């Protein structure tokens, strides 16, 4: 069973185009904030991971589907969970919704890299701390 992480946000004027519709690229920012807050909820941060393990978590790919628009002052919820993991990366599914309406769905491939940008194995202790949040599909 995987753990869901939730992040609530409000759409501000700066997030929208002239028509009051959320500009498509801003959904990527919303997703990034939700992933960052999920790490914090687990007791980590990007800064701590860099300092303790010399690692960065970068987005290798993101497949995003825009289903419905969202608008100025909408209250949105981002649901995130880890779908699967390999030795050097993991895949997250993220969903943005407004009430019961699904707005956006994203599948994000995240890779651990060292400070030179080379892929690295997920540090053992970090892997163990994250393991309870992985879905059933761990690939080694």
Structure description:
This protein is an alpha+beta fold and 140 residues long. It has a single domain, classed as Thiol Ester Dehydrase, Chain A (Roll), CATH 3.10.129. The protein has three helices and six strands. The two termini are 18 Å apart. The model has no long low-confidence stretch (mean pLDDT 90).
Quick structural summary:
With 140 residues, this protein is of the alpha+beta class.
Characteristic terms for this protein:
140 residues; Thiol Ester Dehydrase, Chain A
List the helices and strands and how they pair.
Blueprint lengths: L4 E6 L15 H16 L4 H8 L1 E12 L8 E11 L3 E10 L2 E14 L9 H7 L3 E5 L2
Parallel strand pairs: 3-6
Antiparallel strand pairs: 1-3, 2-5, 3-4, 4-5
- Note the main sheet: 6 strands, mixed
Please give the alpha-carbon distance between the first and last residues.
18 Å
Helix content: 10-25%
* Strand runs, count: 6
Q: Looking at CATH, which topology would you report?
A: Thiol Ester Dehydrase, Chain A
Looking at CATH, the homologous superfamily is Hotdog Thioesterase
What series of H and E elements makes up the topology? EHHEEEEHE
Low-confidence stretches: none
Radius of gyration: 16 Å
Question: Please, how many helices?
Answer: 3
Strand share of the residues? 35-45%
- Overall number of domains: 1
Described by the principal axes of the CA atoms, the overall outline is elongated
What is the arithmetic mean of pLDDT? 90
Decide which structural class fits the backbone. alpha+beta
